[in-house]
UniProtKB/TrEMBL annotation:
Residues 31-107 form the Rap1a immunity protein domain. This is Rap1a immunity protein domain-containing protein. Residues 1-22 form the signal peptide. Keywords: Signal. InterPro entries: Rap1a (IPR041238). It comes from the Bacteria. It holds the Pfam family Rap1a. It comes from Sphingomonas paucimobilis.
């Protein structure tokens, strides 16, 4: 199973536990919504990114140096990445979050996209 597919599947299991971000409209789950939340320094931004990181750690069975408990660092890395890669603003937010965190803290031997 591809890593992105696995991440999406795992996040689907977590989504019911994140009602602040799990809105009923599809646009509320797009990257633009996460970007707005992170720009506003909302707590749910860091919480969401931490959840994505947790799912990435489970999927790749490695932490790869990411600051697991530093939500501010996760937010800063996401914002740096999101400012450069606007494509992910129109897709599900987990896709961009995974890309941002993988880019910021790649595992040895990982090919960054």
């Amino acid at each position: 199973m591809k890593r992105a597919t696995m991440i999406l599947a795992l996040m689907g299991a977590v989504a019911p536990h994140a009602p602040a971000l799990a809105q009923t409209k599809q646009s509320d789950m797009q990257g633009a919504a996460l970007l707005a939340s992170c720009r506003a320094a909302e707590q749910r931004c860091g919480a969401y990114l931490q959840g994505v990181l947790d799912m990435m750690i489970v999927a790749r069975k490695a932490e790869c140096g990411a600051p697991r408990d530093d939500r501010a660092a996760l937010r800063a890395a996401y914002l740096r990445w999101a400012e450069r890669d606007s494509y992910f603003q129109s897709v599900h937010m987990v896709a961009g979050a995974e890309q941002a965190l993988s880019s910021a803290w790649p595992c040895p031997g990982q090919v960054n996209r």
